[in-house]
Structure formats: C-alpha cells, structure tokens
Amino acid sequence: MPLSATLVQESARVTPVRGSYDIIVAGGGPAGYAAALGAARAGASVLVLEQAACLGGIWTAGLLPWIIDQHTRGSIMGELRDYILNQAGGTLVGTTLGVDPELLKLRLETDLVAAGIRLRYNTMITAALKGSDGRTITHAITESKAGREAWQAKLFIDCSGDGDLAAQAGCGFDYGNEHGLAQPTSLGVIVSGIDPERLEAELPRAIRKVKLCEFLREGGLEPSYSLPGLGYLGHGLFFYAGAHQYNRRFDDPDALTAALIEARAEAHRQIEILRRRGGLWANLRLHGTASALGIREARRIHGRATVTVDDIIKGRSTTRTVCRSHFGLDVHSPDPSRTRGIDKPMEIQARPYGIPWEALVARDCDNLLMAGRCISGDFLAHSSYRVTGTAVALGEGAGRGAARALQRGILPAELTDEDLATVTDDLADQ
Ligand SMILES: Cc1cc2nc3c(=O)[nH]c(=O)nc-3n(C[C@H](O)[C@H](O)[C@H](O)COP(=O)(O)OP(=O)(O)OC[C@H]3O[C@@H](n4cnc5c(N)ncnc54)[C@H](O)[C@@H]3O)c2cc1C
Fold first, then answer.
1. Which of 2, 198, 372, 419 could serve as a FRET partner for 382 with CA atoms 20 to 30 Å apart?
2. Using 50, 70 and 90 to split pLDDT, how confident is the model at 143?
3. CB distance 160 to ligand 1 below 6 Å
4. What is the CATH number of domain 17-177+297-423?
C-alpha cells in the first residue's frame, strides 16, 4: 500500500521453510567453499546459499583467480594447490597460484557435490530471523526466482564477504578507515594473446606494473590505477586488473552499476592501447570481464576479538589461533588525490601472525561465525588477511569448528583450547 510518494507499506506474509541443516554457509566464495567442505568432512549436514551461479566468489564470478598466501596451512588449500599445479595447468609465481577460472569453478563445485553438500545458486540472503532470545539466528531468508524462502539451521557461517547475514541479524560492524572510506573497487578482466615467456623476458614482474602504467600514459590514458596487474594463469590466459573506482559503497547498487560501466569501458580502452603498441601486444585480446565487481572492503563484523595492525607488527599468535597469515599490509589508497596506487600510511614491518578463533565468532549472535574478509578486524589488518589463501584457511577452520561445537552440544564461543587444537591442527602451526 502506498504511504506517500516515497514510501510503501508491504503486507506481512508467510514464508515457506525449504530445508533444515546443521550448518548454513552464506556465500560460496573462497571462504564459503572451504567452510562448507570443512564442516561436511567433519560430519555436518550443510547448505550453501550463493547469489551467483557458481562457487568461487572473487576467483570465478570476479575473474581474479590469483591466490595469495596459499601456503597458509590446511588440507583444503593444499588439495587445491595440488590440483592447480598438477592437473589444471596453473602457475606458481613466488608464493601465489594462478589458475584458469573455469577449471576452478568446476573443481569447487565437484568437491562440494561429492561431499554431499546442498548448493543453492541464484539465491540471495536478504534477511535473518532470530529466536525470542534475540541472540540466536533461526532462519536465513532468501529471495530468488522461487520467491521468498526460509532456511533453518543450528549454526550459520557468514562467508558473504560483505557480512550480509550478520548485518541482517543485527550484528554490529565497522566499515572503512577512520574517515569512513573504503579501498576502491576493481573489475577482474581475463586477457589472452601474449606469449608468457616473451612477457617475462621483455617485461619482468619487478618492473611490469610501472611499465604498464607508462605504456597507458604514452597511449593517451591516465589510468585510474597506477599499478596495473597482469599475471599468468596458464592455458594462455592472464588476469588483468588495471583500474580503480573510488568511493563506491558495496551496499549502493546505483554506485556499483556506475562503477561497473566505467570499469568495463576503461578495461577495453586500456587493452586497445596496449594492443596498438604491437610487438608483444599485437595479438592481445580481452577475453572476458567479470560479472561481479571486485569489492575489496565491506563490513567487518564485530567479533569477540578483533585482529589489529598491532597483532601484525608484533607477529602475535595465541593458543586460540585458527590459522596464520603470512601476507603483509596491502591498502589500495581510498583517496585518489593522494595516490592511485598502494597507500603506505606508515612504515610497518609485518610479521606472520595468528588469527584468533574469537575474531570469527560474532559478538552479537551466539550461533553465528564469520570467515573470509568479513571477520572482525581493523582497517589495516583487513588489508592483510583479506587475501584468498587466508580466506580458505579461515573457512576451513570455521567449518570444522562449527561442526565440533555441534558435536559437543556447545556454542562456538565455548570451544576449549583442546577443541581448537584438534580443529586447527594443520592450520595454525607454523
Ligand atoms: C579487485 C580485487 C583484487 C584482489 N586481488 C586479490 C589477489 O590477487 N589475490 C588474493 O588472494 N586476493 C585478492 N583480493 C582479495 C580477495 O579476493 C577477497 O578478500 C576474497 O575474495 C575474500 O574471500 P571471501 O570468500 O571472504 O569473499 P568473496 O570472494 O567476496 O565471496 C563471497 C561470496 O558470497 C556471495 N554472496 C555475497 N552476498 C551474498 C548474499 N547476500 N547471499 C548469498 N550469497 C552472497 C558472493 O556472490 C560470493 O560468491 C582481491 C580483491 C579484489 C576486490
């Protein structure tokens, strides 16, 4: 019913409950894939609710299959690494893995289906129902072509990257830096038509970003990102990330639509400029642009502990560590007038550090965990732990920990040091 020109009132409705599970995983990106697999392998029944039409999040829908900090421990990342290097024809550059996103898409799906996990694609979580205690999520509410549906679970793991389920359940969160500004977005692009050996010889990695920026400027374009990335994924495919879009919030679809339009246009312009250089670039082709804009930063859900930059400076680890991160700070400047590249706000020497279990346990809900980039952390710490190797390890830890809590009939926050040692035996060590 219209209330005014700008407000309508919807009537209350009855929503069908479509299933009941031990654990529901919100989002099937790197963290969600590993959370679901970790939980199912530990004996839990699991549903993954995913808004896209595939698993993998930024790797697949985002076309950035470039896995940093993959040496973070855990069996799932180890299995993926073996698959990527021994079967998928992927690449290892330093400690970073590259892989054809289509092969990864198939592999992730095959793994979850084989583990008996129910997948529901094209289904977005839009609300959460809580019990009378106000601290327990009873159902995730989704919207899809099937309409509005409810899904019941004992425990929930928010792996949506943006912390959507937690926010819908009323959990507190932080966003951006001290000025409320988040890192820019970028669109993943796959290109082909370059000889990888010739690229390495003519434009070695150490100078590649700076040179690419120079080439774009020589071609008449001031790129919105001064350090364009180009990395080999195998099978003649490269990821390319050459643009930033500033001050676009993850929860503003109009701003994200404008960002996508700008990003896609800039990607085509950049590739055309490089192709016109001839030589190494003569056969360069833009193979595909991502269907989802890459969101570096959204909600950081309040947990029972917060990962801070001080933890990274000190290389702190505790008996409650889920996994260790080996990646330094990587802040893409939120302010285009300062630098269109990586911001180094202060000279920080990062050391490998442990991420505590409590940073994955929601402060404001008792049966909710987070994994991936929406865990509890400060702005600078997030720029380190957000990478996908860490997301996989966090997901695996969250999934196993959730299953352990269910088996013991306790809440996730009540896991003892001994429980955690069992859950994280191959994640937290080094
Ligand atoms: C432009 C860019 C470049 C990056 N480069 C690298 C890199 O080179 N290497 C690296 O390791 N990391 C990189 N990162 C960081 C990394 O990609 C992310 O931090 C990482 O994806 C975190 O994994 P995740 O599983 O938490 O989130 P995501 O990959 O974002 O996955 C979240 C999943 O949840 C789904 N989802 C979201 N909301 C809902 C909802 N309401 N209902 C249902 N499903 C939902 C999404 O569709 C998605 O599949 C980059 C990030 C960006 C944006």
1. 419
2. very high
3. yes
4. 3.50.50.60
